[in-house]
Design goal:
Number of helices: 11
Largest sheet: none
Order of helices and strands: HHHHHHHHHHH
Radius of gyration: 23 Å
Number of strands: 0
Organism: Haloferax larsenii
Shape: elongated
Protein name: Conditioned medium-induced protein 4
Strand content: under 5%
Helix content: 55-70%
Length: 201
């Protein structure tokens, strides 16, 4: 070690009576561990959740605290199974709550048909029977993927405002990147391009 390092070490030993450095770090779980003011971020996420609750009819009856935890966990990379354990609910309930919050995973859209076609049919007001006939699929598949498409449509009509705001608060990702792009598929954009967008809250 150089003279400066040796001098600093001597000062440390003299001050602490020990020549060993033990680092103890305990970060709280989730993306909030990396922000300057976690409580302020949680409050902002809670405000967004409350705004969404007022604007949309949620399918789930989760409280705001649970939904905030879900949002934080989602952007921290937790699976639905992980979130279900944390929130003491079923993975299906987590999935439905994510859709309430416009949080759709790429895996949710992994359908055996083109999701763009389902989007277009829903925008046109088609019922399940018409969709089954148009897509030539089983009704169970329509029931499975209809909530996915509806969540994407709601997000598109809001210009992805809520998803983008959550992402800005909880990630370091460039919002021009894949995080937003995966919710802006060309077919969905085309299907909803004639819908008046409501951006005043």
């Amino acid at each position: 070690m150089d003279d400066k390092t040796a001098e600093l070490r001597d000062i440390f030993v003299e001050t602490t009576g020990s020549d060993t450095v033990t680092e103890r770090q305990s970060e709280s779980r989730g993306s909030l561990a990396n922000v300057d003011d976690p409580e302020a971020v949680r409050e902002r996420v809670s405000d967004l959740v409350s705004t969404m609750r007022e604007k949309y009819e949620f399918e789930t009856d989760f409280g705001d605290d649970a939904l905030v935890n879900l949002v934080v966990g989602y952007f921290d990379g937790d699976s639905d199974e992980d979130l279900a354990l944390e929130l003491d609910v079923s993975p299906d309930a987590v999935r439905a709550a994510r859709f309430d919050l416009h949080l759709v995973r790429d895996a949710d859209r992994d359908a055996p048909f083109e999701m763009d076609r389902l989007d277009k049919l829903l925008v046109e007001g088609a019922d399940d029977e018409s969709i089954v006939e148009a897509l030539d699929v089983d009704s169970a598949l329509v029931r499975e993927f209809r909530p996915v498409a509806e969540a994407d449509i709601r997000s598109t009509r809001a210009n992805h405002r809520f998803r983008d705001d959550f992402a800005e608060l909880l990630t370091d990702d460039d919002l021009s990147g894949p995080l937003v792009d995966d919710a802006r598929r060309d077919g969905l954009k085309e299907a909803t391009e004639d819908i008046e967008t409501d951006v005043s809250f």
